[in-house]
Amino acid sequence: MFTAKQEQSKRFEFTVRFLETVKVTDKEERYTDAKTPWLTLAVKPSKRKKEGTKLWRFRYMVDGEAQMISLGVYPTVSLKNARGKAHNVRKMLDKGLDPSQKRRLPAITALEQAA
Length: 115
Known about the structure:
The protein is of the alpha+beta class. It is 33% helix and 30% strand. It has a 5-stranded mixed sheet with strand order 1-2-3-4-5, covered by helices on one side.
């Protein structure tokens, strides 16, 4: 779905041990789960945290455009939960729904009611 240039992440079979041993570098690194298509772990350097931040992201395409949705921060969101969330997002995409738009709907509705 993504071209080689768009998807510059490394494919690994995610395990808890792998997630705990991922090293932070001076630039953002992305790792893609070989078991769960489009599930990505982004490891970002942080000035405050020595170990950096590990973010779960789900990358997908809508109308030919690459999109990304955040699924949470590791270890707050476990590998099992991230895979479950990715599965739910894939179900939404199969139904023709954009997960980013679905997330924004409650906020938009609240703003319209407040006005």
